[in-house]
């Protein structure tokens, strides 16, 4: 996956994914900084991967939340609002 990217998490506890992604991105940046300082580091021999700072994270709910379930609405309501906003607005 390249950068910049947009990630959409339409699931319960989606905030956990965002938190984990941020932690992963920070760890990756730190490893690349160490590799830049130490030319003998294994990562120093590889081309630099794109920065994860340019990724946009869209989560349907927070880390401790569940998605609402309504039989009259699509199961992926958050994604539906992003992809077909007029259709969803008219159904609501």
Topology at a glance:
Layout: E1 6-9, H1 14-37, E2 56-59, H2 77-83, H3 85-91
Parallel strand pairs: 1-2
Helix pairs in contact: 2-3
Question: Please, could you describe this protein's structure?
Answer:
With 92 residues, the chain is mainly α. The protein is 41% helix and 9% strand. Strands 1-2 form a two-stranded parallel ribbon. The protein has 3 helices and 2 strands, in the order βαβαα. It has a domain at 6-65. The mean pLDDT is 85. The protein is elongated.
Number of strands: 2
Q: What percentage of residues falls in helices of 4 or more residues?
A: 40-55%
Contiguous low-pLDDT stretches (5 residues minimum) are none
Tally of alpha and pi helices:
3
Strand arrangement, major sheet: 1-2
GO molecular function, one term: protein-macromolecule adaptor activity
